[in-house]
Amino acid sequence: MSAASAATAGSEDGNGKVTRVIRVGTRKSQLARIQTDSVAEKLKDLYPEVHTEIVAMATTGDKILDTALSKIGEKSLFTKELENALERNEVDLVVHSLKDLPTTLPLGFTIGAVLKRENPHDAVVLHPKNAGKTLHTLPEKSVIGTSSLRRAAQLKKRFPHLEFKDIRGNLNTRLKKLDEKDDFSAIILAAAGLRRMGWESRVSQLLGPEDCMYAVGQGALAVEVRARDRDILDMVSVLHDPETVLRCVAERAFLRHLEGGCSVPVAVHTEIKDSQLYMTGAVFSLDGSDSIKETMQTSLVMDTQEEEGSSDDPQHVGITARNVCSRDQASAEKLGVDLACLLLSKGAREILTVARQLNDAR
């Protein structure tokens, strides 16, 4: 079946109406299913004639659970199998956590929607015996679980009395490891995931940018589609949240220009205020002792008119957003590149090279 006919495959309901079947690819974890179901619901609300069929599959990152993500050295750990299904026309679109998507997508794919971002910050989840404490007040040599080099690098520097150890598995697994054993005093997780799972009550402390800046794209959901599937692209594009798109374009451009990934500690913080996009970006050594952090800003037009004229869909770091001002997207991408250049001019490449070598040697 061709991509176009797959996308428009339909079936008659009891009233003789043709419903359109859209197959949505997702990872198998509970969080991935919750995220995908939320996107499917939004599509159904917007297009009542559409019937969504969820196709769940395990990815490499889901299967390798005994190794830190940064050691596996594969850029598309949680996306490759899903993209293979998209390429084979087995699904029509795929829902991802944007932070899992590499800044350069395989040829023929594009991010057709970036949804409104949840809180992008990291959260501290304490072992029940430490209720009421914070990272500041935990006893000396308390062990904190995180599989993220970015989190560990920043928190080692900020809280030198604590120790950090890898913890892998989906959210359910990590919480179980925390609660049922005494290996960890606390673990660090993305606040957005905890909220989507309905586990906000477990958040003991939200980490602001002064403690721990977040990962590129953290807290945002992305819908990946085949770039040539015009009808699917048009369908999902209404899900774009313009502010989230612009922030994430800047963040992804920053990471791509630094040639970062999950094997090096890179962190960001972005906000839009009074038609200005502010971006702070940083790189860290593995122990956090060495770092470079800078902030830049750019002006935005914030014009919501859909761009007329060109039938082309210019991609900005893998994102196609025709309903977001193209000048603003270009400004956001330039901001990310300019900030990366500033960090590189101050020695970021050396810090990242050493971090990569040390991580490979671990």
UniProtKB/TrEMBL annotation:
Pathway where this protein functions: Porphyrin-containing compound metabolism; protoporphyrin-IX biosynthesis; coproporphyrinogen-III from 5-aminolevulinate: step 2/4
UniProt KW keywords: Porphyrin biosynthesis, Transferase
Cofactor(s) listed: dipyrromethane
Enzyme class: transferase
Cited Gene3D superfamilies: Periplasmic binding protein-like II, Porphobilinogen deaminase, C-terminal domain
Location of the Porphobilinogen deaminase N-terminal domain: 22-233
Entry keyword annotation includes Nucleotidyltransferase: no
Highest taxon of the lineage: Eukaryota
The keyword Electron transport is assigned to this record: no
Occurrences of domain Porphobilinogen deaminase C-terminal (ranges): 246-310
EC number(s) from the headed UniProt entry: 2.5.1.61
Signal peptide positions (record): none
Family classification: Belongs to the HMBS family.
Database matches in HAMAP family: Porphobil_deam
Name of the protein in its database record: hydroxymethylbilane synthase
Organism encoding this protein: Huso huso (Beluga)
Lineage of the species this protein comes from: Eukaryota, Metazoa, Chordata, Craniata, Vertebrata
